[in-house]
Amino acid sequence: MKVSGSQRKTGPVFNSEKNLAMATPESKQLHLEDPTALARFGNLEMVARLVVEGYLMGQHKSPFKGSSIEFVEHRQYYPGDEIRHIDWRAYGKTGKYYIKEYEDETNLRCHLILDASGSMAYGKSTISKFEYARYLVASLGFLLLSQRDATGLMTFDTKLRDIVAPTTNAQNFQRLTDVLERTKPGDETSLADVFEQMQSQIKRRSLVIIISDCFDNAEKLATVLKRIRHSGSEVILFQIVAPEEEDFPFQRPTMFRSLEKSSHRELVDPNRLRAHYLESYRAFCEDLQKRCGNLGADYEKIVTNEPLYRALGTFLSARTHRKSKS
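^ that's the sequence the OP posted. Answer follows.
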């Protein structure tokens, strides 16, 4: 069920180095424990650095290792790329700069896929699901790019909204955070339909990390994930949920409205609805987890009142353990 809620906004962009230096260890720990406080602490770059440098460095191992030095493909040149990698023959033909990428230039090629549909705007007792998801994406991007893994980003609601191509260029983190800072939750979406569009962007074996509340038909969603897995890519699905969606704590008659269809409103007695809602919700999450397991895709549900570093760190530790045993 998608219910309305207010969104809190982070402050303006400022120098994260200066603010990190000014923060005491106690204040950093306090903010990292509370996602809502973390949102007030600074911009996406600063939060990502706090989470990654404080808790996650050394826990992650790349699942793919480069095994050859064969040329793979061209990608667009970005300022900061090494000039020696420019394909001058391609420039002579097109008048545009392209970089030649080789298989062993990166341990990992990762696509971060962020759900920016209306239901992600919900947030009542904590920051919204979308804000939490942004911090998760920024932290993953910072972690991956810090270890020279090619990392890109796609955002979507009814369609693909922004695409940042994967690259190991350190400046790609600024591109990721620029997109994340300006993206706001939009319209209704069908995850399965949009993922069909995304498949054309995933041209090589990659790690595909999807961050969404996953409110869609589980069977359709699993069908698309199956196609991504069959292409040789690895899939991780982070389901971001609010505490209210987990517990349904409402007591008084409440007006529920859809965040994706503004005209859809319904006044209900939560006490009469609670048991049915919780049964349906938990069955949906269990079904989604089971389908991911059957596909060999990793699944992790994160509630927005959980400390981001703890939720992410626990998952990456478990993931590293599984990789070491495989």
